[in-house]
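Input (structure):
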């Protein structure tokens, strides 16, 4: 498998397309404009529309989201809002906090050891399971210890990253463009005897939780069940948003519907899906318990995404979804050495999927699959761009 050294000549932040030599040949002037013309159909479709991005969960493959953001930047596509779930909340939140693509790229490349994110012996979950069980036996059982790894190291990493590039951990109301992330509210952990306490999907945004810190919102959205403990916020516990919405297009659709009916802007969601749960995994890939949890979450997420596409994609009514699947290699949660290759190949795949007239192809394919599964026949005109 490719390593960082093989890709050290490539920089998303510096090069508009693949360099012609190892030293790189950055396109400028007419050469750059000629390169952009292959994306003319996409740019014409996006003209005079509000564009938001929805970033899915995907573990360490979150670096692929950086590649998509770089392509949009190169094409001059303005992003008016960001929605994230799980790993997508990390990249989306950092981008909304003010990190540039160059800084996001560097932040990803700076991750050289999973211990930096998950603590000592991150690659040895059996050791962590035994240690965790001993702690639970003597210190008592609670949500705060309900994971192979603790969340303190990851929280520290996020806050240090924000401090380094932004100077603080901003509140959600301070972000631009507006940012929303999805989590699942598990309740207080001490429900009343009448079982009236409700659990439900929760969206953290500048409207719903303006004073919540970005680091806490991200921590709640990426608390993968069994891997990281639930995140406690104001006495309630939250787990990974990917358990209820792997790709947050339904959340974006709800926000669009909530605007005034006749003043509702024509909106395009560029939805970046990193979880291809339907692909049969190799047994060695699932030998790591975290990867097995991630795989099972992706299977669930794929079904929810197909249903969401069928429900939300309404191009003739003003709400369109351009589905992208830029991840081309398997990236386990501890496979930090694959980050450079994942960003490079995702960059190339994003360019391929957005060029020419086929930028709606994946959207239509998945709508057709969902309709067939439900017995509703062909997607019809609603599945086509307007």
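Output (sequence):
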């Amino acid at each position: 498998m490719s390593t960082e050294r093989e890709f050290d000549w490539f920089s998303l932040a510096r090069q508009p397309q693949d360099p012609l030599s190892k030293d790189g040949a950055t396109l400028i002037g007419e050469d750059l404009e000629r390169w952009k013309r292959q994306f003319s159909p996409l740019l014409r479709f996006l003209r005079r529309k509000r564009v938001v991005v929805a970033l899915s969960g995907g573990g360490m493959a979150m670096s692929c989201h950086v590649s998509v953001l770089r392509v949009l930047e190169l094409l001059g596509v303005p992003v008016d809002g960001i929605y994230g779930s799980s790993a997508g909340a990390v990249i989306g939140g950092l981008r909304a906090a003010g990190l540039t693509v160059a800084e996001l790229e560097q932040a990803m490349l700076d991750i050289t050891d999973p211990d930096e994110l998950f603590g000592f012996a991150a690659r040895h979950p059996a050791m962590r399971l035994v240690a965790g069980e001993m702690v639970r036996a003597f210190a008592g059982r609670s949500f705060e210890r309900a994971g192979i790894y603790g969340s303190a190291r990851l929280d520290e990493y996020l806050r240090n990253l924000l401090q380094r590039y932004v100077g603080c951990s901003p509140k959600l109301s301070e972000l631009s463009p507006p940012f929303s992330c999805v989590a699942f509210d598990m309740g207080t952990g001490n429900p009343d005897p009448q079982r009236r306490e409700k659990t439900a999907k929760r969206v953290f945004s500048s409207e719903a939780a303006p004073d919540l810190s970005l680091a806490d919102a991200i921590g709640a959205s990426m608390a993968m069940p069994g891997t990281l403990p639930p995140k406690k916020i104001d006495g309630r516990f939250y787990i990974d948003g990917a358990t209820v919405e792997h790709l947050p297009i339904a959340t974006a659709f709800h926000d669009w519907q909530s605007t005034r009916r006749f003043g509702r802007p024509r909106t395009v969601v560029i939805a970046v899906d990193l979880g291809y749960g339907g692909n049969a995994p190799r047994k060695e890939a699932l030998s790591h318990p975290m990867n097995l949890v991630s795989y099972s979450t992706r299977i669930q997420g794929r079904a929810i995404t197909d249903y969401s596409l069928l429900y939300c994609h309404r191009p003739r009514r003003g709400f369109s979804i351009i589905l992208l699947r830029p991840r081309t290699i398997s990236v386990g949660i501890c496979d930090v050495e694959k980050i450079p290759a994942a960003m490079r190949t995702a960059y190339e795949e994003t360019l391929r999927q957005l060029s020419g007239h086929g930028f709606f192809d994946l959207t239509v394919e998945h709508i057709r699959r969902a309709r067939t599964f439900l017995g509703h026949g062909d997607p019809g005109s609603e599945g086509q761009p307007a």
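Notes: The mean pLDDT is 82. The longest strand covers residues 179-187.
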